Amino acid sequence: MSPPPQAGPATAAAAVRHPAPRHPAPLLTHRDGRLLRDGRPHRILAGSLHYFRVHPDQWADRLDRLAAMGLNTVDTYVAWNFHERRRGRARFDGWHDVERFVRLAQDAGLDVIARPGPYICAEWDNGGLPAWLTGTPGMRVRSSHRPFLDEVARWFDDLVPRLAALQAARGGPIAAVQIENEYGSYGDDHTYLSWLRDALVERGVTELLYTADGPTELMLDGGTLPGQLAAATFGSRAAQAAELLRARRPHEPFVCAEFWNGWFDHWGERHHIRSVDSAAGTLGDIIDADGSVSVYMAHGGTNFGLWAGANHDGDTFQPTVTSYDSDAPIAEHGALTAKFTALRERLLAASGTAPHRPPPADPPLLKPRTLPVVRGAGLLRALEAVSPATPSPHPLSFEELGQASGLVLYRARPRLPRGASPLTVTGLHDRAQVFVDGTPAGVLDRETGTVTVEGTGERVRLDLLVENQGRINYGPLLGQGKGILGGVRVERRLVHGWTMHRLPLDEWTAEDLGRAVSGAPAQGAAGFATARFTVAEPADAFLAFPGFGKGFVWVNGALLGRYWEIGPQVTLYLPAPFTVRGENTVTILELERLGERVEIRDRPELGPAEEYVETFE
Length: 617
Hints:
By secondary structure, the protein is α+β, with helices and mostly antiparallel strands. It contains 13 helices and 35 strands. The chain folds into 3 domains: 12-351, Glycosidases (TIM Barrel, Alpha-Beta Barrel); 369-378 and 508-601, Jelly Rolls (Sandwich); 387-505, Galactose-binding domain-like (Jelly Rolls), CATH 2.60.120.
């Protein structure tokens, strides 16, 4: 992603503020099964909103919308990889200024729940863990493996004091901090969990600490710690979850740390929704069980750039779409939905207070229009021109190339036998377009795939354009590598003598993008293209790409994300802060088939919908 212009990285000393102490004891405590705030009975009515999924110019607006919904708290993860793309180069400025986000939440009258991980899931690339970390040979994440703990300790040394300085005890809004995230769905290393708790405390966390896991015996056994509040994450069967938690922890309050009132989407599937009545009904069940709750998501936002993660169900790789709308009560572009109104009624009734602010109007939108497309450079020539070649006898993975995301163009010049031969790629993560002498020969998906290539007994130029479609964010395959992890064979013979072109699209500068677009004109169906539009006043919009196949979109140099004709997502959200008065430029990298026009629309189209059904396995 290309954030707006920012100042240089701030030092920790300059960034960490130390307000005067206000609460010598934790703001939130519990006694005899009741949650207390400053010693008085309290119910957390929270909503999830991730600062890294919302343009920073829109943080204040979205926080105000949460408050208008009747919430008293906002919770947010902290995505390690968002801050530290390169080891030792953590950023806390601009879009990465989590401290500013927390202070804006306080300005909106909200308490804050901080969820620093280090693993967050969140359908976020690699579950928030940096690719350089999981790509370290021998690394064992989410465990008491000493090299992992050492890296977490170094990261926490930078992050946690910033959060600690914004706790309620120091005059800030942070009232609770989560230990790890749904760890019982992954492992049972309680030495690791205890170490994390101690690491938070040693770095200044004094507010309420808690764990959050699915409401099953297996998950709670793996993810909870004695002496720390145990919360649950679920979307239905609230009474059953409350009964289980109270049976295990009779002296603790019932807290739903994530109430899934919607769900996320994968490419090639349907758009998941949850009906208003279903969501409001379960929220009412949590409240009726005298529970505290965090609505996940209250406002979902967007997986800008290449930050969308992926899942794996044991058989199928499932990359997540660019939108993280999640059928939330506050839509991806900030509009207030029917679900907002229904949940607001339940929340205000639960709080027993009158709304302190009216719901704001929906954000303005650009008027629809059609933009003609101007074709630019062809696919392969443009990509090889923008990056120098790295030679190797074998194809190198993204990790070996020091690249987290985007594309890698692999090239070799094997001699192909006369006639048809099978070309097989093993360990492919995630998708490869195969070209022989510049002509498309097929598309391969995960793990092992074969295409038929035609040879004359002479050498050919073999190109494989491999796309990282998002790192797995949940389950035992967390941290898998990307690129070609095995080898490439013609019949039984391995192909050697490769060059690789690194193409980290979300790190490209305006100069990189301009160099790619202005290369040799497109000869085939794929390549770069541009479209332009003018606006008198920046406003939100949605972009659609009829006739296009699969690719990536930048607006004024900022990478919005992926589009793909298989859906379900049709439109990409364009936030107003990405646009400027006057002329704006849309740049498209199309991998398969360029269309003739880009459409600006005034409403989202997220695809054919189906009701989300919760399962615990």
